[in-house]
Hints:
Number of strands: 14
Helix content: 25-40%
Strand order of the largest sheet: 2-1-3-12-11-4-5-10-8-9
Number of helices: 12
Bound molecules: nicotinamide-adenine-dinucleotide
Low-confidence stretches: none
Shape: globular
Largest sheet: 10 strands, mixed
Amino acid sequence: MNYKIGVIYGDGIGPEVVREAQKVLDKICATYGHTFTYEEILMGGCSIDATGVPLTDQAIAQAKASDAVLMGSIGGNTATSPWYKLAPELRPEAGLLKLRKELNLFANLRPAYLYQELKGACPLRDDIIGDGFDMMIMRELTGGLYFGERSTKEIDGVMTACDSLTYNENEIRRIAKRGFDIAMKRRKKVTSVDKANVLDSSRLWRKVVEEVAMDYPEVSYEHMLVDNCAMQLVKDPKQFDVILTENMFGDILSDEASMVTGSIGMLSSASLNETKFGLYEPSGGSAPDIAGKGIANPIATILSAAMMLRYSFDLDKEADAVESAVKKALADGYRTIDIMPREGDNLDGITQVGTDKMGDIICSYI
Ligand code: NAD
C-alpha cells in the first residue's frame, strides 16, 4: 500500500521522538512491502520562528492533502519562551487548535494500557491491577463546554461568568458510532459516560447512544455517571474497554486513566474525523526540560504511529507488530530514564537507553 504521511516535528523533544517513529514506520514498509512518503509540515513554535504564525494556510493545505498526520508535540517553556509573550492566537497551541478545527477532528482516542513490566509505576495496589488493564478513552473533541458560548459580565453589580454546554444529536451520533466501531476492533464493550441525572445534554447523549447501540448488536454497552466513572477507574480499571464521553468529562477522565498507567512517555493518542484521516501524537507535551538531551521516551510517538496504521490505514497486522515490538523491548529490560525502576527496586536485567537506541531496539524486533 502507498500512503502519504504529513509529519509535524514540532518543538522541544518533538523532532527527536518523531524521527524514531519514522524509523519504525520505515521498518514496517521494508518488512510488509508498503511505501510511505513523508512531507514535513510546520506547526507550533518552529512555525512562529519561520513564518510569524503557528500555522500557515499552506500547512493546513499540506495536512489536508495527507492520508494521515504524525506529530510530535508543540510549544516551549511557558514561563520563559518568547512565544508566550505573543497574543494568544499567535502562540504555538493556537496552531494545534486551528488544525484540529480545520480537519474537523471530533474524536479523540487515548489508550490506557498497563504494561506488566511497568507495573511498578502504577499507583494502584497489586490486587486492583491484577493482570493489568487495557482501555480506550474516546472523547468528543469539538463540542460541549469548550466550544459553547461564553461570557463574563457584571449583572446587578456582581461579576458573573457563563459557559454553555451544547451538543446536538448529530454531534453525539457521529462520536458514538466511532466509539462502537472502535469497540468492534477491541473487546466489544462500550461504557458511555455522562451526567444524565443533572444535565439535559447528557440525557440527549444517553438517548442517541442507545439508538446507535441498536446497530451494533455484538457490542455490549452500559451507561455510567461521570462521578462514578472517576471512582471506578481507580477501584476496578479492568472493567473498561471503550469509554465514550463528551469533551470535558473526557479531558479529565483520560488524564486520570493515563496516570494509572505510569509514564507520560508511554501514552499515545489519535484524533479522527469522519473519513479515515487522523492526527496521531503523543499525549505529553514538548518537554522543554529534556529537549536535545537524547533521553526522551519515543514509545508514545511510536505507539501513535501504530494507531495510525490501525485506524487510518487498516493495517492491523502491522500495528500489532509495532505493539508487540514495544512489549518485547520492555520485556527484555530496555528502559528510557522516565520508565526506569524506582530507587531501591531491582535493576537486574534492566538496561537504560536513550531515545535513538530505544527506536533501534523496537525496529530490530519488527
Ligand atoms: P510535558 O508533557 O511537556 O512535560 C511534563 C513532564 O513530563 C516533564 O518533566 C517532561 O520531561 C516529561 N515528559 C513528557 N514527555 C516525555 C517523554 N516522551 N519522555 C520522557 N519524559 C517526558 O508538559 P509541560 O511541561 O506542562 O508542557 C511543555 C510544553 O508542551 C508547553 O508549551 C505545553 O503547552 C506543551 N504541550 C503541548 C501539547 C501538544 O503538543 N499536544 C500537549 C501538552 C503540552
